[in-house]
């Protein structure tokens, strides 16, 4: 097993007044040659969007883009006809494919939006753009691993054009969970959303992250009540 620990304090950051963000990987004005991604996983931005603000229309192509809000309401509209709003417990999945222009906006005049935005490179290029959102009721996930994005979209999950699996786990104090990988070419990136936990033998606090390679499984033990996000992607 190979592990690499990344404390929350090691992330890049930016403050544009309307947007405050922390970058797990190189993005925009933050460039770190040692943090260019993890396999097909390219972006994890920890965003805070001010009230009545947001991202104006901009374009993407051939990227799988996942948005996970923690508070507030984010509204989406794109050139392929995708439109909707998401809140905590819901996930938005967009395949940019041949190209799509979209906007993401916080319409509330008082309440900010907090979210993760994740980009993963696809294994199928130039597909037709698509947009989907779904409520996964993450608050009900207790001491189990809830997979919500998969390559085939089975079992009421969102489909991604990649051999990637995204999972959510909420672990009570002292509880143990085990995550099983889907093959030797895979690795996992785990970030603690809240609380603290021991993951693959390393202690992680809020927003700390760890990468794991060359392992068939990883262990998660909560040292307090903890919520974690598990991102499994091809690394070879």
Q: What name goes with the CATH superfamily of the largest domain?
A: Jelly Rolls
Rg on CA atoms, Å: 17 Å
Strand order of the largest sheet: 1-20-17-22-15-13-14
Average residue pLDDT: 95
Structure class: mainly beta
Compressed to H and E, one letter per element, the order equals: EEEEEEEEEEEEEEEEEEEEEE
Determine the N-to-C terminus distance: 15 Å
Number of domains: 2
Per-chain topology:
Blueprint: E1 2-6, E2 12-15, E3 19-23, E4 41-49, E5 53-60, E6 64-71, E7 74-78, E8 83-86, E9 90-95, E10 100-106, E11 113-120, E12 130-135, E13 145-150, E14 158-159, E15 165-171, E16 176-180, E17 186-194, E18 197-199, E19 202-204, E20 209-213, E21 217-222, E22 226-234
Parallel strand pairs: 13-14
Antiparallel strand pairs: 1-20, 2-3, 3-4, 4-11, 5-10, 6-9, 6-11, 7-8, 7-10, 9-12, 13-15, 15-22, 16-21, 17-20, 17-22, 18-19, 18-21
Q: How would you describe the overall organization of this protein?
A:
This protein is mainly β and 236 residues long. It folds into two domains: 125 residues, Jelly Rolls, CATH 2.60.120.10; 95 residues, Jelly Rolls (Sandwich). The chain is built from no helices and 22 strands. Strands 1-20-17-22-15-13-14 form a seven-stranded mixed β-sheet, with no helix packed on it. Strands 2-3-4-11-6-9-12 form a seven-stranded antiparallel β-sheet, with no helix packed on it. Strand 2 and strand 3 form a beta hairpin. The protein is globular, with a radius of gyration of 17 Å. The model has no long low-confidence stretch (mean pLDDT 95).
